[in-house]
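[job 4471] stage=fold_predict status=RUNNING
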Amino acid sequence: MKAAWYEKQGPARKVLTVGEIPDPHPGPGEVRIRISSSGINPGDIKKRQDAFSYGMPYPRVIPHSDGAGKVDVIGQGVSSDWLGRSVWCYGAQSYRPFGTAAEFTVVPVDQVAPLPEKVSMDQGACLGIPGITAHRAVHVAGPVAGRTVLVQGAAGAVGLCAVQLARFAGAHVIGTVRSSSDEETARSAGANDVVLNGSELRARVPDGVDHVVEVAFGANIEADVDLLKPGGSIATYATDSAAPKIPFWQMVFKNVRLFFLGSDDFPKDAKILAARDLNGEAGWPGFEIAERLPLSEIARAHELVEHPTRRGRVVVTIGAPE
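[job 4471] inference complete, writing structure tokens
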């Protein structure tokens, strides 16, 4: 099969190779997917860059955890109902060497979800990590029905999903965005109110918020805690600072609950529930696709994720499933 891989970490153009390697075959409980579109997430970039100094986990890595395509081979113990089905997958390169930047990928069937008829392969390829992270971030502290949820960075990939999922679950959703051009994006996902750059947040929610979904923990922790009601919660999946300071006593006096979320290690049941709920979303407008590049241009695709030239997701196209 044709695939992209790296055998050392570093800049995209220096380490990514595109070539031919043997086709993979599913083991028990696994399926093989003929990939149509492969989604790129910030985590894929960080792994290739060795941003956290973990080194190479495997001698050769095919990048990207998320993708969409059609199941063409099933392993022992997998229902034949999956054969020929259009699907999206997640975690293909989580604790596994070979992700979705290839003609085929093999994943456990528990990490595969049917692709709804009205959802394109490109959209499905973008759904995994952002959608599952958003679901966990919204629900990790308990039910949100009837509560006020603040989504920081509501126009980002995770933020958009969090807005939609929180609204779907019955929350009143406030979203913050960085520019006026992002306001409509957040509203279309279901935000009841959208605030530019976090300004006027206190005026918009004078009684405070119950739960915060946070993308820039270091920058926003003080404002988040100030806005939280007693017993409120924060779920954070990213930070602008690797060693942020926290308003400890204010958090203690409010009995704030704080959740740090790493998508690779969410409980299995939480991931399955997230995939089910994501497939059940009615009216989801989808992600804006900024760039679609062929596998031969994967280095350029990675560079566009690192240094975006326009708003939206970047996908690598492998080919239409048969």
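[job 4471] summary: Residues 128-139 form the longest helix (12 residues).
[job 4471] exit 0
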